[in-house]
Amino acid sequence: MADLTPLLAFRWSPRSFDPDAELAGDEASSLLEAARWAPSAGNAQPWRFALGHRQDETWKRILVSLAAGDQHWVRHASALVVGAHTGGDAERAAYDLGQAIAHLTVQATALGLHVHQLTRFDRAGLAAELDLSPEVRPVVVAAVGRLGDPLALPEELRRQETGLRHRHPLPTLLLR
Ligand SMILES: Cc1cc2nc3c(=O)[nH]c(=O)nc-3n(C[C@H](O)[C@H](O)[C@H](O)COP(=O)(O)O)c2cc1C
């Protein structure tokens, strides 16, 4: 395998977050700044974000929109970031939002943080909880925090957490 920059090589999506770790204000700003400086088609910057710190009102409103099985581990994350987009061309806006979240994830790795993105949540419920206007479409919830103890997870999740990660071999991804 070709070498990757450590910022990419060390990124992965844990379910074990340290329940005592908090996200400092400057860390949160740095994550959102990374997202803000992502490229976008026509520099449209169609992304919008909501940030909740553990146990604050926004965090609780985001958490309840997640599937019950995910809430169980996501509640240990230090912060939850909702990634939403605006704009007429939803496909283009979703692509741009994905890049912004990817930038956020790389910045998180640089800060010693981990991110687990989730698209399994009640979009209409979250939009209502956050009182979003109709043109703002929430697409992803990113759980952000510091690594916790995988042994504290239920057995099934622990196995996933400690198992090998897989990717398709590169040659199978090349169209020609
Ligand atoms: C857009 C997106 C949506 C995801 N949604 C979920 C989800 O709903 N639940 C979940 O447990 N993981 C979710 N994940 C995490 C992926 O399962 C994970 O990134 C993938 O298995 C690769 O693992 P890695 O991030 O550790 O490399 C999501 C990731 C992305 C990028």
Give a brief outline of the structure:
The protein has helices at 6-9, 25-36, 57-63, 68-74, 90-110, 123-129, 155-162, and strands at 47-53, 79-85, 114-118, 137-145. It is of the alpha+beta class.
Q: Strand arrangement, largest sheet?
A: 1-2-4-3
Backbone structural class: alpha+beta
Domain count: the total is 1
CATH superfamily: NADH Oxidase
Mean pLDDT: 97
Tally of DSSP β-strands? 4
Poorly predicted tracts of residues: none
**Basic shape:** globular
- Largest sheet at a glance? 4 strands, antiparallel
Looking at CATH, which topology would you report? NADH Oxidase
Associated small molecules? flavin mononucleotide
The CATH class name reads: Alpha Beta
- Please write the string of helix (H) and strand (E) elements: HHEHHEHEHEH
Distance from N terminus to C terminus (CA atoms, Å) equals: 20 Å
